[in-house]
Design goal:
Blueprint (H helix, E strand, L loop, with lengths): L1 H10 L6 E4 L2 H8 L7 E5 L2 E6 L1 H10 L4 E4 L3 H11 L4 E3 L7 H10 L4 E3 L4 H10 L3 H21 L9 H14 L4 E2 L4 E4 L20 E6 L1 E3 L2 E2 L2 E6 L5 H20 L6 H17 L8 E3 L6 E5 L12 E4 L2 E4 L3 E4 L2 E6 L2 E4 L11
Parallel strand pairs: 1-5, 3-4, 5-6
Antiparallel strand pairs: 1-2, 2-3, 7-10, 8-9, 9-12, 10-11, 13-14, 15-18, 16-17, 18-19
Length: 356
């Protein structure tokens, strides 16, 4: 209910009479329930949810602040409600409505001014960037599951297992530990494949002296966790050790610099400059991190081009990396909450180099 009220206060300014929302992520954010369908119709002083039989009973009991309508003929129902509330101009979500859907709304809701440039999506993105206490607790739970699963997968990694086996076992462990699902497809890569920032698990067999890079996260009640750890199997070279130490130091420097009021691009620059000055210029080609919540990649992010200002209760990843083509790569990633002006690291897994 609070999210609906906040959205109405920020969005309705006299130019827009109603808003239609259908994206799953914003539906979850506003309703607080999971459903694969449902249309939200929002007016300045009233919120409706039109939903099919599969979710109707659940929505009636859980969609607080909404009048729930059993869907029969959607556009007929929308039209009747728009007329009832004397609406003329209706906004759609710019980020998710396709051109085909936009034309469909215009044709089936003829007589109304359907707009796709109201700023609705931008307002929702901004609202979702600052988490409520309930959202933070879900992300923390998801991260605890992820950390516990990392501890357990270490007992499985050894010479002779494959990347694909590590990924499958890690996903299995996360679900055993309470994950509702996966934040994203698990990355588990080793040896030369670690130079691929988003490499896919293959049948490559782990060898002595390999790095094993794992990027993974648990999903809990719709909220994502995200972490990366790079471990070694057996003894590694001084060259590999130097890469690892450089990435770790870059991350620690960035973590120490994160504060409410700081510019995101400035945090990215701290880690990037250190990596560049350490002799690895050109090997860190992605952003330092991204916001996490109902989606695995939200805004703002730690990148050279993001001038957003950090606010209390934002949640972001911090994940510098070095990737040397045809050789190896290292990435270390933690999740932090901007809390009491500083970075509260909610990733508890050790970051010292682990040699299995």
């Amino acid at each position: 209910m609070d999210n609906i009220k906040r959205l109405s206060e920020r969005f309705f300014n006299g130019n827009i009479d109603a808003a239609i929302l259908t994206s799953p992520v914003n539906r979850k954010y506003l309703l607080g329930i999971n459903s694969s369908a449902g249309t939200i119709l929002l007016f300045p002083d009233k919120a409706y949810l039109i939903i099919d039989f599969r979710y109707y009973e659940m929505a009636k009991s859980k969609a607080e602040g909404f009048e729930v309508i059993l869907q029969n003929k959607l556009f007929k129902e929308l039209k009747e409600l728009l007329i009832k509330h004397n609406a003329k101009t209706v906004a759609l979500e710019e980020d998710t409505v396709t051109l085909e859907e936009y034309e469909g709304y215009k044709n089936k809701l003829s007589g109304f001014n359907i707009v796709s440039n109201s700023g609705l999506s931008e307002i929702l993105r901004d609202m979702r960037s600052v988490k409520s206490q309930s959202e933070l607790e879900k992300i923390i739970t998801a991260q605890k599951i992820t950390d516990k699963s990392f501890e357990e997968i270490l007992n499985f990694i050894k010479v002779g297992v494959t990347e694909r086996q590590i990924a499958a076992r890690l996903e299995y462990i996360m679900k055993l530990n309470g994950a509702d699902g996966l934040s994203f497809d698990t990355i588990a890569i080793a040896g030369k494949n670690t130079s691929l920032p988003h490499g896919e698990p293959s049948d490559y067999v782990i060898q002595k002296g390999d790095f094993v890079l794992m990027d993974f996260g648990a999903l809990f009640d719709g909220y994502h966790a995200d972490m990366t750890r790079t471990v070694a199997v057996g003894e590694i070279s001084s060259h590999q050790k130097r890469i690892y130490d450089t990435v770790l130091q870059a991350q620690l420097m960035a973590l120490d610099s994160i504060k409410a009021g700081q510019r995101c691009s400035d945090i990215d620059k701290i880690a990037r400059d250190y990596i560049n000055k350490s002799g690895y210029k050109g090997t860190f080609g992605h952003s330092l991190g991204h916001s996490v919540g109902l989606q695995i990649h939200e805004t703002p992010n730690f990148s050279p081009n993001c001038d957003s200002i950090l606010k209390e209760n934002m949640v972001l990843s911090v994940e510098p990396g070095i990737y040397i083509e045809g050789d190896c790569g290292v990435r270390i990633e933690d999740l932090v909450i901007i809390k009491d002006g500083c970075a509260q690291n909610i990733t508890s897994s050790p970051k010292n180099l682990i040699c299995l």
